[in-house]
Structure formats: C-alpha cells, structure tokens
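User: These chains co-purify. Model them together.
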Amino acid sequence: MEKENANVLLHVDNLVKHFPITKGILFQKQVGAVRAVDGVSFDIYQGETLGLVGESGCGKSTTGRTILQLYRPTSGAVNFGGVDLVALKGEDLRLMRRKMQMIFQDPYASLNPRMTVGEIIGEPLVVHNVANAKEIQERVSNLLEVVGLNAGFANRYPHEFSGGQRQRIGVARALALQPSFIVCDEPISALDVSIQAQVVNLLEDLQNQFNLTYLFIAHDLSMVRHISDRVAVMYLGIIIELADRDTLYLNPLHPYTQALLSAVPIADPVADSKRKRVILQGDVPSPVNPPSGCRFRTRCPIAEGLCAESQPKFRELKPGHFVACHFAERFV
Amino acid sequence: MHDYLLDVKGLETQFKTPDGIVHAVNGISFGLKEGETLGVVGESGCGKSVTMLSVLGLIPIPPGKIVAGEAFFFGQDLLKMSKEEIRHVRGAQIAMVFQDPMTSLNPVLTVGLQLVEPLMLHLGMTRKQSDTRAAELLEMVGIPKAKDRLGDYPHQFSGGMRQRVMIAMALSCSPQILIADEPTTALDVTIQAQIMDLVRRLRDELGMTVIWITHDLGVVANLAQRVIVMYGGYIIEEAPVKELYFNPSHPYTLGLLGSLPRLDEKGRHRLTSIDGVPPVLFEKPVHCPFAPRCKFAVEHCWKENPPLNEVTPGHRTACWVDVKTGRER
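Assistant: Joint model of the two components:
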C-alpha cells in the first residue's frame, strides 16, 4: 500500500503472447495469430493483491499463465524477484516454480480423480523432492488444517467433496511449496454465492498469514474490488487502465472501465436505480484481427478520428493511475 | 385477495435417482400478478428451475414426478393438462428463455427456421407470413440486418446474439408470461447489461409479466418488483424488492446479502460467509432445511419446519426466529 517504498516482486514488461493459426496438414504454414496478449506491462508489489479484470477472451488468463511460463511468451520480459523468467530454461526454471503457484478456475477439472487428496496436495513436494514420506504426510495434514479441512480427509478422493471443499484442496496444493506468489485464475467463479465468500475469506487469511502476493484474475468486478489493492482492466489483449482499487472504481478514466462498472448490477434497489448506465453496443472484436488504433474504438461512446489512426499510449496520468486513452483528460 | 395470473399451490416435485429420491421442490405456493416482474433467487439445487419446469410440464417423467400441487392459469390447472393441451399453452401463452444460449438452439437448423416454427405451429401463419414476422422479431431484439441473418446458423452468432435470438423466439407468439431462467449467467457483464436492458424495454412495451430466475441478487435488485428466495426446495422468504434488501427477515437472505461484495464498497471489511454447504434432500426434513447452517438456530428449528408466515403485509418468511432480536417470534 505504501507503494513508493514497497518492493516490486514481479515486473512484467511488454509481454506478448500470440497463438499461431496454421494452415495445411503436412506443410503447415502460419496464416495468422490470435493476439491473446499484445504488450502488457505492470508491476506487482510484495504482499499486495493485483486484480486483473476483463471480459471473456480478453487475455487475462493467458497473461497469468504466461507470467508463470506455463506458456512461453512470444516476446517481452517477466522479472520475478530479480530473475528474468523468460530467459530461464530446464532445471533453473523448475527451481523458480517453487516460488510461484497457481489456483485454477474449475475445482472439478483441476484435481485428478484417481489420486487421493493427500497425493494431490503432496505431489508438489514429491516432484520437487523437498521432503521424505513422513514429512510429506505431516505437511499434508498441516495444509489441510490451514485451509479449513479435516486432516483425516487425506485418504479420500476428490469426488467425495463439494465444489467449495475442492477449491480448498486446490489452495492447499498451491501452498505446499510455500510459494511467495500465487496466480488465482478465477478461483471462485464456479462456486455458489454463499461458498464464494468462504473461499475469498480463506484467501485473505492465508495472505496475511503467509505474506503472499496474489495476481487475482476474475470477471466479477465486485469481488475484485473486495479483494484487490490495485486493479488492472484488460480489453482485447492489452491493459487499458490500472490504478488502486478505490481510485479505479470511484474515478475510472477509460470509457471501457466506465461502461464495465456501470454494467455491474448492485444488490441494492435504491442505489442501483440512481446510477447512470452506459450500455455498450455490439460484441468484443476478434483478437485475430483487432481494430486499428485504439482497440476499444469500435464500441467506444467517445471515439473520434484520431482513435482509428494511432494506438493510445499506456501512460501515467496521475501518480499510480495508468490509462490508455487519447481523451482520458476529460474525465479527470 | 389478489387475482393471480399464475397461481401455484402446494407444488411438490421429486426425482428418482440411483441414490434415492431427491425432494427437489417441497410444497411451495406463490402467485404471480399480472404485469409484475417476479425475481426467484437461490443457489444451485435449491429448486428454482425445477419449479418453473414443473409448471410448464417440462420435467422428464420418469425420473421426475410431480407428487402434488396445482398451478392455475386462466382458471385451468396446468399440472392436470394433457401433453397436447399444455403444448398449446407453452410457447404461445407462457414462454421460457433458458440459461445457456449455446445449447438451447439447434445447431443444424438455421435461426430463421427455428424462429418460424412456433409461428406456424401456434399462430397458424403461412411460411411467407412467418418469414416476415421472424425478421421483425429479430429486429425488435436488436439484431442488425435482421433479414439477411435468417439464413444463418447458430454458430454464426455470438453468445449475446444467440440469447437475443432465444428471446425473439420466446416473444414470437406474444406470451402473457415470460419465464427467464438465468438468461444472463453465461454472458459477460457488458452483454448482460444489454440483455437486461432489452428485456426491460420489451416488458414495458408489450406489458409482459416476467419471472426472472437467478442466483445473482444484484440482477434482481434493478429488475424485479417482488422477490422470492428459495432454499432446499422451499420458499423461505418473499417480499417486495426494497423490503427484501433493506429488511431481510430470514437468516439465509441475510447471509446471502452479507456474502456479496458490493461494487460501491467503502473501506475494507470481511464478507460474512455462510458456513457449510447447501443440502441435497434425500429426505424431506422435519426441521428447518437451513438450520444446520444457521447462526440463529434455536431448539424449535430442529423440531419443526417453520411455515411461510406473513411478518408485514406482503412480506412472508419461514423462520421461527426474529433476526432483529435473535429471539424466537
């Protein structure tokens, strides 16, 4: 929160990830690319939660996976605690992975149904060869208790658990190697409302307990506001606005952020009826062939000729408040 | 009392599964006033969709079974109608929009053909008349170049556009009641806002009565006039929309509102989560279905399931405890 003197844990610089589209069977040639992430730059400070929001297909999950080198980036740099992850290979990269883990969206698909809960949570310890069998057993019981499950559950299989409990197992697995950084990729969107709050509270407690840094990817803007210290908004492969959460939610400077926020219903009939709603027309364009200039111009209520010609720079308009819009000054 | 457009009394639906009989809906009663928008809120498995499917005769029998209940619509009991009779009501007078626009359209038929079907079936239009009408309908739900798109297949439309097509289809025979079953859950927020705006506009233009099923208390807040909250196959609270949000009287509703972060949240606070998980009812509970997760539970809650009683005019709740004082009523 005191950002000026806080330590930067992760520095992402102009990260690009293109997925090739190929043609032909034997002699494949690339005919285009899905520009899933097209040059994003941001910092994550030690101990904070950075929320990453956007609509489906905007590249937020790809950004998370590319940071962890689950996808190797097309270009750009990811600096994690002083080490450039993009340059690392093989054993060096594997050792770095201990420090960064991931919690996945779907608690039904991300746990192997043929492994017991104990095996699932203990697997990172086995893979990284950091503990013997007895230590693993102790650590698993300990982790289960940390995430609010009974230590006796270690011998059960994932199907015996509800969605919320499974997500707790996924969290325990992510914590097994005592990482400092966790990418939470929509960890609650598959859960029921009353269960979502349980998991979010757990994530907050663990952050305080273990001094974790989170990249929290989600499309639920209310939840992102609740959990994040700072929030980045993505649209079609680029970050269009980044600021601390209260600034972003109270005074958004990008027309897309404004529309996105106004589209979220509030569970309060009086407050909700007073709000001004900006309804965007049309759908998100294809990332294979994004619009020229500003990518949002095709749906933007204030777009002008300039927007089609040049891509707005991602600039720091106010201290700590970055925005990519030619006309953002109007909203200051 | 009120004259209800749709009056459901004592509806009970069960499903036979290999593990036993699941009591999905356990004797619920509610009325729908003409011209109103009724929100039905609850988590997955609470029986909100099964209630509506039962009323429309869309429950597969077996494994499903409607054990008891009546559903009066213009003096006729929908639950006693033959398959043939209810087919004339469904689509023509009561229409439904489903959650997933990706799977509720037939992928091998053109959108035009799917739109024309109810028109020819229910209204007896000729192919030519119904083609014109189909184009009008697509235009009404805001699809650009509607006429040219009739020959397109569902995969050529985006998610939001497909949901618009579904709405056009539901509205094609000018139904009195539109039942929308989580129509925006699969969509992005900006598209959700488009669809909600569309439904609100069409409802006001056509004077339709709407039942909007959702798990999102935010969506209901700015759409419905009255809200029903369901839990474990029971209605546990029913109130006018403002009353429900500002004066919730059931611990579950209270918990649900507390576990929701708000977009206009100020400062940091902890969400008040509800412990435990929603029940799967293999037996009809003798106690209050929410008692195992309830912070307010007293002895009485474990002995008898509370009936849905009126606390203030129009506001009904099924709880033995007054959540304001924490004491038994």
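Residues 109 and 166 of chain A are 10 Å apart (CA to CA).
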